[in-house]
Amino acid sequence: MTFMDPVATLVDDFKIAGGLVVDRRAAPVKNSMHAYVPQTAVPFTVNPVAAHNVTGRDLDFLPEADRNTETVQFYARDGSFPGGVARGWKISDDGFDADVVHYNGRIFRVVQVRNFSVQGRVWCAIGQLMEPQVSG
Question: CA gyration radius for the chain?
Fold first, then answer.
């Protein structure tokens, strides 16, 4: 038994019914005018997945300026990600933009990822609420 096995069972015990929709984009590309153009988002469902508000030590690891934004932690197992999709959460590196998670009718951008897949088959992501786009 590894230290993350209890967390892996919690993903199943507290899973969100139906899972969560995640939008993933490849990194922006330069067009002929040398401007970066975002790629099309590819939606998929992560299931099973559990979520809770970030508190305590995990909140301390965020930059101080980001601590006033609603922040949620998402837990998923290796098998939670559908076939054909790179498993695990993505942040804005490795040729990807950050994953965008749709949770409780709101949109969260993944800002931090912890890969515990070897220790207990769990991927942990911290997502911050994205400000709604308001047209003036």
Answer: 16
| 33 occurs within a structural domain | no
The percent of residues above 90 in pLDDT, for the chain, comes to: 29
- Of 116, 104, 38, the C-alpha closest to 75 is 116
Burial of 130 (0-12, 13-18, 19+ CB in 10 A): middle
Question: Which domain, by its residues, includes 88?
Answer: 5-25+41-129
Which pLDDT belongs to residue 134? 56
Residue 63 lies in a domain: yes
Structural domain count of the chain: 1
Query: Rounded distance, CA 131 to CA 115, Å?
Result: 27
Half-sphere exposure at residue 82, Cβ-oriented, CA atoms within 13 angstroms: 13
Torsion angle defined by CA atoms of residues 23, 24, 28 and 32, in that order, rounded to the nearest 10 degrees: -70
The residue type of 84 is G
